[in-house]
Amino acid sequence: RIGPAFRTTHPLASGPVVSPQTTVDGFVETFLGELNYGQGTLLSQSTVNDQYLALARTVRRYLMADWLETGARRRQAQQKTIGYLSAEYLLGRQLGNNLLATNLQDIAEDAMRRCGIDIAALRAQEVEPGLGNGGLGRLAACFVDSLATMDVPCIGYGIRYEYGIFRQTFEADRQVELPDSWLSLGNPWEFPHPERQVLVGFGGRTETVTDAAGVERSTWTPDWQVLGMPYHYMVPGFRNGVVNTLRLWSARATQDFDLQIFNSGDYAQAVRAQTFAENISKVLYPEDSTPQGKELRLQQQYFFVACSLHDFIDNTLPADFDLRRLPERIIFQLNDTHPVIAIPELMRILVDRKGFDWDEAWEITQACFAYTCHTLLPEALEVWSVDLLGRLLPRHLEIIYRINEEFLERVREAFPGDEMRARRMSIIAEYPDRAVRMAYLATVAGAKVNGVAELHSQLLRDKVLPDFSQLWPEKFTNVTNGITPRRFVRLANRRLSELVTDTIGDGWVTDLDRLRELEPWADDAAFRAEFRRVKRENKERLVKLLRVRDGLELPTDTMLDVMVKRLHEYKRQTLKLLHIVSLYEGVVSGRVPAEDLTARTFVFGAKAAPGYHMAKEIIFLVNAVSDTVNADPAVAGRLTVAFPANYNVTLAEKLIPAADLSEQISLAGKEASGTGNMKFALNGALTIGTDDGANVEIRRLVGDDNFFLFGMTEPEVERLRPGYSPSSYYEENPRLRATIDLLASGHFTGGDRRAVAPVIDNLLHQDSFMALADFQSYLDAQERVDAAYADEDAWSRSAILNVARSGFFSSDRSMRDYLERIWHA
Ligand code: Z2T
């Protein structure tokens, strides 16, 4: 720590902190104070940004006493803490969430009105912290919300990227990425803590020295270092007086580093050194599911993990803490393999710095970690080349080697003579290059390994880590993902929330199973009419937003059919596109009168990783189809296709409550869980989906009659895979042929056939995710959707049952499962 803790006997030094009055007057007074003294401006002179910052700081004041009190209580109680280690937190906007948590929404709105300010304009001013790619990052944000609401001690550790997920725009229908400079107008939600900075080393070499007791010990001398500056964020529980902490690390150059070079007179070099250090937390890697093996990414991973372990062990635990009891005080949950380097880091701390012998350190380490896997795609399993790892973290590589040696010894004991198995299970892969398999390291060291939905956990045991689940069956478990009902129902869908609360009371917000009490209301005509009014008003709100945000003109009285998620071939946005084109083709070929189509508005939202070429071609094609279909009078009022740019949490909160149909159409066995699927069901959309990820559990809970299932099952996919021939489907299915022919003809690209070739050729000759095999089944299911939608009452009934039966998907339930099956806290 830098400097001693501040000590005084002044009576106000240790509280109580006085919160502002919970009245409109109190709010106005605090707000004007923040505007004058915090922003240094007058209301009459202030910009919208001044007002937003002052409002945010006002809300912050109402949370501060609870935050300080929660911190003090946690230090006192010395309970076991969850150290959630995640390279991503996709938080979404803070203002609305924190107004909700403090129950200040109405007071704040009145207070702003009294100042002549429309609070909606201030809400719109906030740039959301997009410190994640998609599902994995949003899951982390939901989990910390739930833990605060459940008053479970948790520190969320992560990286304060200066640039989050890129901002997406379209130019000539193609994705263009812009930097997300989310901090540029000021960030009122963070608190830097320079007194808790941490030094992190990289590179250099290791040496073996014999200590006083004659024991050989390894020492690591890094050849460069950076400082980690923690920024604290408040994580408020829902109206329970609890505020937990999210601690995000930002990289700084060390002063030594600077000064040395400065004194040598090379100013430019000193600045370069600073830039070099600060690059570590500069930008979020935008790959969802398929990481790139870039050195900077490994630096990011080690940087935040080293800061976090040091922070907990040396700055959070009492100074005299006996580290043999570490597992009683912390469980580090590894959010995928990104933080797995924490395992050798803890071994290094215990053995090299604290003098433990190896076996004792290993026992402690094994009890301090648990690992969540989020994928089944083999290309998404992280490996780091031995070469790179050894250069950047030589001591950690040594430790990994030793962990592996002792592990393989155990394997050979358990399976004598089975050398093939030992090789398969080695943490070090030999081909094509020597590399560390991070998932194996996490599985060997972790006390538990979990998948994120039942099907995923089963496939993880059977297909990804079969040797490990044979060796340690009790290590493997499932925790099905969840979503926070605070943000994704109560905040995003105020109308539905009011209807639900008027009907069954407000207990559901923190006890989502109580939505079951809505079931009987599905048969009540008046309730169904109210439910439809809610949907309609949400659609109207969305249409207004997209008019202002994107210049789109969308109808409000059609079925809203939504597919929003990262762009990935396995998620099969192209299958959705084939459906749209097939409907359109029916009309333009004269086969189907336009009036016979169910009027639908299709909405896509998706970012493609900048280096993922096929994903970018698919985006182009969706935009091209959208342009053509929307401009064609033949389908006017029947088919509309919208692709608003820059899908993010903020847009999700507007889109999902308005949706009628949720598209969850990944190839079976590829989507680990999905969480968007849960958000839609809880907001009263019906799902059309494959037997994949958490869809399986959604369908089981809401009932077959209220879910549109299609496509192959995972075993069927595996059986079809050898010798799969997509072109045979094209040859044999006239609907599919006509659809692909229309696309390939250049009809949607002003006659340009080359522009559509990448996607079409891939579909016909590769189709790794078997869109063509599931095409007919998908079309049939969509016809069942049309038929169901025609019966307004039956549809509303199903939609209400989706809401009533989806309480299981609260992330509060996920947290209970983690506590019971993994954390034992
Ligand atoms: C990610 O968002 C997910 C998996 C990853 O595997 C990486 C990222 Cl960035 C390495 C997603 C899954 O694709 C999705 O099915 C799941 O619901 C989500 O994580 C949360 O578990």
From TrEMBL:
Under Gene3D superfamilies, the record lists: Glycogen Phosphorylase B
Per the UniProt record, one Pfam family is: Phosphorylase
| Key words, A-Z | Carbohydrate metabolism, Glycosyltransferase, Pyridoxal phosphate, Transferase
Cofactor(s) annotated in UniProt: pyridoxal 5'-phosphate
Q: Which domain of life is it from?
A: Bacteria
Q: What is its EC number?
A: 2.4.1.1
Please indicate if the UniProt record lists Glycosyltransferase as a keyword: yes
| Reactions catalysed, as given in the entry | [(1->4)-alpha-D-glucosyl](n) + phosphate = [(1->4)-alpha-D-glucosyl](n-1) + alpha-D-glucose 1-phosphate
Instruction: Check the record and name the InterPro entries matching this protein.
Output: Glycg_phsphrylas, Glyco_trans_35, Pyridoxal_P_attach_site
PROSITE patterns in alphabetical order: PHOSPHORYLASE (PS00102)
Keyword Transferase in annotation: yes
Its family remark reads: Belongs to the glycogen phosphorylase family.
Q: Which NCBIfam families does UniProt cross-reference here?
A: P_ylase (TIGR02093)
Briefly, what is this protein's role? Allosteric enzyme that catalyzes the rate-limiting step in glycogen catabolism, the phosphorolytic cleavage of glycogen to produce glucose-1-phosphate, and plays a central role in maintaining cellular and organismal glucose homeostasis.
User: What is the protein's name according to its record?
Assistant: Alpha-1,4 glucan phosphorylase
Q: Identify the species of origin.
A: Phycicoccus sonneratiae
